[in-house]
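Technical note accompanying the year-one report. For the benefit of new consortium partners, we illustrate the data format agreed upon in the data management plan: each record pairs a sequence with a structure-token string. No post-processing was applied to the example shown here.
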Amino acid sequence: MSEEARVREIYKRVSEAAKNWPTTSLDYYHGQPFKALIAGMLSAQTREEQTLQAAEALFALADNPYDMLKLSDEQILKAVRPVTYFENKARYVREICERLVEVDHGVVPSDLDKLKEYRGVGWKVAVLTRQVAFDIHEDITVDIHVNRISKRLGLVKPETKQPHKINEELKQVLPREFWARWNPLMVQFGRIICQPTYPQCAKCFLYDLCPRIGVVQTGPRTYKNAEYT
């Protein structure tokens, strides 16, 4: 099997399996730039369940930067408490809204570099915001799941660390039409099968396609499906 065929088969199998997996994707804010930006910022180092819980609590109070600035610090802090580093992120909410109102006239920019000028918005959050808010898929959102799984699959060099460099390596091997869904698929796959500490290699439907780089395999293979054997 060629490398291109292997990559396409990996994508196919994960896509099929994902139909039966729960999802809490931030695509809930698809086409809503302000909500996508704030939710994206809140999502840093936080599970999507907690991110959505905090975002929905916050947006129930205000759903635009002008009204958000009318909230008290305590209201914002209480709403975003479910996320990690909630005190810092509560400050970022206000600072993002201030910049939106004072600099960008209430309009969230779609430019990657301009998005990174907002407090709490690094490369990953900027890429995620562009994808969710504007359907711009020029890059692949790289989180801990994409980082870990892409290396185990041999799609990214183990020594590559920076998210934007992982993105560039992935773009060399993934067909363009895969870029948009690679992150959400890897998040689901990473939670259920390719877990950080104890990956479920023995029952993984990618067993025959995966070199398991960096993984110490233990136990016999238990996954059985004629389609993949």
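Partners are asked to follow this layout when depositing records. The CA atoms of residues 113 and 198 lie 37 Å apart.
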